[in-house]
Amino acid sequence: MAAGDEAAFNQLFNTYWDKVYATALILTKSNQLAEDIAQEVFLRLWQHREKANSIGNLEAFLFITARNLIYNRLSRIKLETAYNNYLQHQFTAPDKDIEAKAEFRQLREIIAAGIHQLPPQQQKAFRLSREEGLNHEAISQEMGVSKATVKDYIVRSIAFLRKYLQEHARLLI
Description:
Radius of gyration: 20 Å
Structural class: mainly alpha
Mean pLDDT: 84
């Protein structure tokens, strides 16, 4: 497989798919997410096949890759959920709760400042995704870049904003 033999890769795929999928399913409790993770594990294995000879224990490598992808995905989902809750609360906050509105206004300003610090392409992809609700395919067409590039922009944006919010959210406390 390290030399690019697709038959060898297919054999590894067929041998380990069920184990990787089952591990992902146990950790995520979601068929769709487990399938996505398993596909990503094997995609990465194929993309980095030239390094495959240095892998001492393939099963452990696949498990660790799956685990890391799951943690990253769940972390991203958690951040997206928090952001969506923030947006939802922003539009439904009761008028009587002035203190909460002030806190949300401050949080909105911190998020806006963080988004403003993103590079222009990341900023555009993030806004199209989170503010306009476009999927990666639509963003790809809108921006004239590949879906992989869009995914990279959004992942980098979220990672930056997560750190930015951790550093600046202390101002609210």
